[in-house]
Amino acid sequence: MPYGGPVTGTDSLDPIAEAHRQWSARWPGHADQMAAVTSVMRAQQLLLGRIEAVLKPFGLTFAAYEALRLLAFTRTGTLPMGKMGQRLMVHAASVTNVIGRLERRGLVGRAPSPDDRRVVLATITADGRELAEAATAALHDADFGMPGLSPAQAAAITAALRAVRASAGDLPAEEVPLAEDTPLADDTPLAEDAPLPWRATTERRP
């Protein structure tokens, strides 16, 4: 079975439902949590496979798309690479790898910060912006790999997973939304997408 693809074959058994049945018979107090975790992990595989299939014609992985989209959301198209790692919730080495690939395609440029040469700035190019917009339109057309899911259902999933993230310490202690008239710094992504909300929890090769 290819990574991210549906289960194939003649067996119509849902492995997660069967695991839930077995758990319920042995450890009924933990069956629902087990099924929820297993379902999230499986859904992550399926969704990432669908999304990367949409992005493949653009020559982008999801990690590369996220980097372009993050830069495109800033007012100047520029961010320190260290801050990109924070916003994308990945290791600095992953950002370096992704930006290096995008730079070789002329989609992003890198340069030392004029204020601190130890800081490397990544800047999206005009070609990078154009590609990011085209890829975003394709993802919108594909409903981000979740066709048929209503906005209310998507919001319910986000809310449920937010509780999981909060319990794991993945959210700041206090989250104060920016007022509409609050000026943004040049390196601040537009409020509705900072940080990128769709970040997959499993890093994959850019």
From TrEMBL:
The keyword Amino-acid biosynthesis appears for this protein: no
Which is one GO molecular function term here?
DNA-binding transcription factor activity
Q: Which Pfam families does the annotation name?
A: MarR (PF01047)
At the top level, the lineage of the source is Bacteria
Swiss-Prot/TrEMBL keywords: DNA-binding, Transcription, Transcription regulation
Residues forming the HTH marR-type domain are 30-166
* UniProt xrefs under PROSITE patterns: HTH_MARR_1 (PS01117), HTH_MARR_2 (PS50995)
Q: Name one GO biological process term.
A: response to stress
Positions of the UniProt region annotated as Disordered: 172-206
InterPro entries for this protein: HTH_MarR-typ, MarR/SlyA-like, Tscrpt_reg_MarR-type_CS, WH-like_DNA-bd_sf, WH_DNA-bd_sf
Put simply, this protein is called MarR family transcriptional regulator
